[in-house]
């Protein structure tokens, strides 16, 4: 019975680890050496989901505003900050989530923040009529060599959004009704005074979470090491070994 218990514990740790770790795309640009504006595409993975079609996040990091907040052709909706804060920023992060999963609708997109205090604005952009816009079209002109463009449906506008500056430091965009397959979000944004670093982003359907890495405002003093699955398994093995040793005594 003890052996069964240990195997169960180790298997549980493996499954937890597999679902907790964001798997960064090996082809993501080096933010320290790339030339601005930086264009990229990130994959979001759910370890236990065998589907090859996964949510993808197109993104651009720029040191100048691609759209001025006072441009009358566009509508800015903020979860924090305002047009003055936006235009006064030094770094601009633009995102577009594509739902190319064959069976899942997506209800939420979240970006973890290393330091929410460096974020000046967060929100989304639509055209003047309130319709979603594409990051692939002008003036963004998102372009990545070998980019996978699959979603060609509607551009969905968030039903609500949250900026959480303390505790669970994050910015989130909610979709109700959920994003259908083949739909994309309108352009989402963050701005700040700090340079970019990769951080975890996730999109959710019910209890399943697809996670990946996207650039976001960084805190130079931030040092958050996410344990790898094998590290968690080894840790679990050590704990089990100590428990058995104590029982044998």
Number of strands: 13
Let me know the largest β-sheet: 6 strands, antiparallel
Number of domains: 2
Strand order of the largest sheet: 1-2-4-11-6-3
Strand content: 35-45%
Output the radius of gyration. Answer: 20 Å
The first-to-last residue Cα distance is: 18 Å
The helix count comes to 3
User: How helical, in percent, are the residues?
Assistant: 10-25%
What is the element string, with H for helices and E for strands?
HEEEHEEEEEEEEEEH
Q: Write down the overall mean pLDDT.
A: 80
Poorly predicted runs: 6-25, 222-235
What coarse outline follows from CA principal-axis ratios?
globular
Which structural class is indicated by helix and strand composition? alpha+beta
Q: What would you say about this model in short?
A:
This protein is α+β, with helices and mostly antiparallel strands. It is built from three helices and 13 strands; from the N terminus they run αβββαββββββββββα.
Fill in the keyword field for this structure:
five-stranded antiparallel β-sheet, globular, single chain, 249 residues, 2 domains, alpha+beta, 18% helix, six-stranded antiparallel β-sheet, 3 helices
Describe the structure.
With 249 residues, the protein is α+β, with helices and mostly antiparallel strands. The chain contains three helices and 13 strands. It has helices spanning 2-20, 83-87, 229-248; strands at 38-43, 56-62, 74-80, 91-98, 106-112, 119-127, 155-156, 160-164, 170-179, 184-185, 187-192, 196-205, 208-217. A six-stranded antiparallel beta sheet has the order 1-2-4-11-6-3. α1 (2-20) packs antiparallel against α3. The model is unreliable at 6-25 and 222-235 (pLDDT under 50).
């Amino acid at each position: 019975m003890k052996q069964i218990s240990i195997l169960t514990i180790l298997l549980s740790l493996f499954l937890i680890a597999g679902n907790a770790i964001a798997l960064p795309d090996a082809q993501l640009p080096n933010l320290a050496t790339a030339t601005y504006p930086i264009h990229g595409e990130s994959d979001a993975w759910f370890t236990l989901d065998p589907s090859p079609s996964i949510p993808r996040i197109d993104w651009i990091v720029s040191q100048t505003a691609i759209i001025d907040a006072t441009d009358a052709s566009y509508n800015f909706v903020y979860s924090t900050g305002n047009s003055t804060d936006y235009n006064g920023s030094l770094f601009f992060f633009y995102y577009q989530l594509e739902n190319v999963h064959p069976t899942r609708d997506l209800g939420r997109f979240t970006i973890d923040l290393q330091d929410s205090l460096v974020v000046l604005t967060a929100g989304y952009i639509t055209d003047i009529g309130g319709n979603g816009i594409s990051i692939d079209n002008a003036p963004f002109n998102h372009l990545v060599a070998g980019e996978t463009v699959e979603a060609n449906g509607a551009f969905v506008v968030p039903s609500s959004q949250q900026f959480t500056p303390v505790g669970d430091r994050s910015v989130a965009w909610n979709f109700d009704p959920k994003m259908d397959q083949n739909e994309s979000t309108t352009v989402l944004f963050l701005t700040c005074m700090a340079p970019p670093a990769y951080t975890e982003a996730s999109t959710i359907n019910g209890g399943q979470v697809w996670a990946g890495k996207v650039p976001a405002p960084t805190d130079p003093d931030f040092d958050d090491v996410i344990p790898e699955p094998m590290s968690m398994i080894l840790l679990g093995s050590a704990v089990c070994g100590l428990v058995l040793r104590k029982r044998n005594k």
